[in-house]
Specification:
110 residues; mainly beta; 4-stranded mixed beta sheet; 4-stranded antiparallel beta sheet; 1 helix; 11% helix
Length: 110
């Protein structure tokens, strides 16, 4: 699965897209992909079937906080605040049915 994440119509410059299977089976499969500076992501090995999706950039924000507290260079990706609802599978409202093979799925956050 590949695609682009936008926030208010602009590419989200960094973060992660996380997919969680929601077919009721066990074990639950969770897979994640990094979001590039242009908002694009590519995720291999996503299980076929319904998935819930969450989007976060907490790791990018933490890297910026760490750099501010140390002599570590600041990451090239800037931090853009994401509304909290998108960080949780339960509240994001994002999801779809993954089909076999290549597919594109974009996520527009507001």
């Amino acid at each position: 699965v590949s695609g682009r994440v936008t926030l208010n119509g602009r590419p989200l410059p960094g973060g992660q897209v996380v997919f969680k299977s929601r077919d009721g089976g066990s074990p639950v499969a969770v897979t994640a992909a990094d979001v590039g500076p242009d908002g694009t992501f590519r995720l291999n090995g996503v299980p076929v079937g319904p998935v819930a999706v969450a989007v976060t950039n907490d790791a990018v924000a933490e890297a910026h906080r760490f750099a501010a507290d140390t002599s570590t260079p600041r990451p090239a990706t800037r931090v853009v605040p994401i509304p909290a609802r998108y960080r949780s599978f339960d509240t994001s409202g994002l999801g779809f049915d993954v089909a076999p093979g290549e597919q594109t799925r974009d996520f527009a956050l507001e």
